């Protein structure tokens, strides 16, 4: 099975590749892309893979934009930290929708679903006059677009996991834990994730920002953008910004400008007012 992974966090992409090796006997990852632009260029210059794993939020937009620029002929498994895109995902080539961090059992079930769909359609087309593989693939995609949403959505969106109340920190040969009440925010820097405490200490974490977003209670923490997840009490000031965006001051102070997009501004205001 040839596989394209579209994911802008290198650590997440590598973890998925390792997980595929454990689940699928002979996976061949033929490419890894990090943006809409790079993914479109890859698909224009390479044979269509058997399967695409596709993150939704990419560095230069949402992966749905790929479908507006090129005909994607491969089945897609979406992997994302957000559950609000499930309906939209099943309007394209999606056979499954997995929330990060992707679990081995969920990945295995998604691959079994793909195999089952192929077998069903192969049996269906053996009794019909067909044009071979191209028609078979076309039928598969039609099935995914028209039949999958009603059943797959119910079965694939994962239930919220138990939220973490502390994180283990490694400092040299020393291990200790930091309670969630001590956390002001999580952030990324140079593709690494950190925890910032209320007393302005930074600690390296072995999780991606996507994984962290599923480990904390959304009533207390909000993902402001691709770089920062903030705890409610760490929001110092909120400023109106151009084009409907918001500019956030954090406490302790974050060393970069923190901007909330226009698309997320409404959700942030609702969260802030709960």
From TrEMBL:
Keywords: Phosphoprotein. GO terms for molecular function: DNA binding; phosphorelay response regulator activity. It comes from the Bacteria. InterPro entries: CheY-like_superfamily (IPR011006), LytR-like (IPR046947), LytTR_DNA-bd_dom (IPR007492), Sig_transdc_resp-reg_receiver (IPR001789). Residues 167-274 form the HTH LytTR-type domain. This is Putative response regulatory protein VV2_1193. Pfam families: LytTR, Response_reg.
